[in-house]
Design goal:
With about 375 residues, the protein is an alpha+beta fold. It folds into two domains: about 325 residues, Pnp Oxidase, Chain A; about 35 residues, no CATH class. The protein contains eleven helices and 15 strands. The strands form two sheets. Strands 8, 9, 10, 11, 12, 13, 14 and 15 form an eight-stranded antiparallel sheet that branches. Strands 2-1-5-6-7-4-3 form a seven-stranded antiparallel sheet. α10 packs across α11. The longest helix has 20 residues. The mean pLDDT is about 85.
Length: about 375
């Protein structure tokens, strides 16, 4: 009997994670330096990253549905107003924001890229106001920062995102492709996608955007209603998994380098520890400790002008990596609140540990 039949007939037999204590027993506790890395305001490393970043994924929830926009511009197009506030100027993707949210104080999550750099930046906060002119057209977003941290490079390394590739030959009828199930076009796109973002919120509506990367054809499609997604080794904070234990609603944005289409899936998720299902997610003989079983409620393709891959790859080649501190240096400085010589030495030690972890614990 295959996994699809078992899922349909005996859903209660699938081993699932029930609470935070069980979750941490499975993945282990994060190191103290990792616990200390989430800041309540921007520091100098965040500011350096923002000045160089030309792309941000912007996520919010509206009426129980995940919304994710991709905003692009010149490096540093998002303006830093203070250590606790940033401003996003008008972008064409704002046309997708519902006018009804203009009066709300929405929790939002932002995820920043610098092409060519493995580490990424995540910022969570609240939209303080949406500025509108007489035509009610949004022309700017003010975000009050509530949390910020630099994310490790594992998702980028697994996806090989900054390696220039030939354009895939994928034909999608995106103008007429919104369904409540996983159709053939969706299957093709998911199987070809090496990178995606998970969008979650907790029971207080605070939201997270979590980057995920894997070789293509890794996510397992059980049937037209169910996806199985791996939870690969990370920093053990597992913020998104904690959110799903509190609130099962989930949004997923899939992309394929070289293609200006994105696939957005909404659904309900269940965190599983079922050994038989987890074996389906094996990569290089490594079986994940956890998986996310998604019951799909909506699949929608959308064309975006924010993913100009030729420009992105050019930026990735031209970026000067020496202008950025290592993740180890950043973590030690943030944890100790110090920029001394001792801090630099400790940072180098931590960086070597991180490099070994990237090599030996990627899957």
């Amino acid at each position: 009997m295959n996994a699809v039949i078992k899922l349909r007939i005996m859903p209660n037999k699938i081993n699932s994670v029930q609470n935070a204590s069980e979750l941490q027993n499975i993945v282990g506790e994060p190191h103290d330096i990792i616990k200390a890395k989430v800041l309540n305001q921007l520091d100098r490393h965040c500011l350096t990253f923002l000045k160089q970043s030309p792309i941000v994924f912007f996520g919010y929830w509206h009426k129980g549905v995940s919304k994710i926009l991709i905003l692009n511009g010149n490096s540093g197009f998002i303006k830093v107003l203070s250590y606790t506030e940033v401003y996003i100027p008008y972008h064409q993707e704002f046309s997708l924001i519902e006018s009804a949210v203009a009066d709300e104080f929405l929790p939002v999550a932002m995820y920043f890229w610098i092409p060519g750099i493995g580490e990424t930046l995540r910022i969570n906060g609240v939209v303080k106001w949406l500025v509108a002119n007489k035509s009610n057209k949004l022309h700017g977003l003010h975000i009050a920062v509530e949390g910020a941290f630099l994310h490790c490079a594992k998702s980028i390394l697994r996806s090989k995102l900054w390696k220039e590739k030939e354009y895939p030959d994928i034909k999608i009828d995106y103008d007429n492709n919104c369904t409540e199930w996983i159709g053939e076009d969706c299957k093709t796109f998911i199987k070809s996608s090496p990178f995606y973002c998970l969008h979650t919120q907790d029971d207080s509506k605070k939201t997270e955007l979590s980057p995920r990367g894997d070789p293509p054809n890794t996510i397992y499609i059980l049937d037209k209603e169910h996806l199985l997604i791996p939870d690969r080794p990370g920093n053990k904070r597992v913020d998104s998994i904690h959110n799903l234990l509190r609130n099962p609603l989930l949004g997923i944005l899939f992309l394929i380098p070289g293609i200006d289409l994105i696939l957005k899936i909404n659904g309900r998720a269940r965190v599983i520890s079922d050994a038989q299902l987890l074996q389906l997610l094996t990569v290089k003989k490594h079986i994940p400790k956890l998986g996310i079983l998604v019951t799909v409620t909506q699949c929608r393709f959308r064309k975006t002008n924010s993913l100009n891959w030729q420009k992105i790859w050019k930026q990735a080649i031209e970026v000067d990596k020496n202008q950025f501190p290592t993740l180890g240096q950043v973590l030690v400085e943030q944890a100790t609140k110090s920029r001394s010589l001792v801090t630099k030495i400790k940072g180098k030690v931590v960086e070597e540990i991180i490099k070994r972890d990237y090599k030996k614990n990627l899957y």
